[in-house]
Amino acid sequence: MNAAIDITHQPVRYRQFDADRPITPAEAWRDGDDVASSAFAEWLASDEQRQALEELISLHSDDETVQALVEQWAKEAA
Q1: Model pTM?
Q2: At what angle are helices 50-59 and 34-44 packed, to 10 degrees?
Q3: Cα R_g (the chain), whole angstroms
């Protein structure tokens, strides 16, 4: 008897290596890849993405991480 029964019948996608379909940067970022995270942060901090970054900060201004970064910025600016 198998105790692991899928009662939801939801398809599950397991990532497997496929040389014809390399992992995209977005997939790598979602998987927690450090290189992809750094590249995304650099892209988001670029002048071309300034508006998007400001909107992101505004949308998440109640987030504890954003508030901690504001406090750190304020201390360094003083």
Answers
A1: 0.62
A2: 100
A3: 20
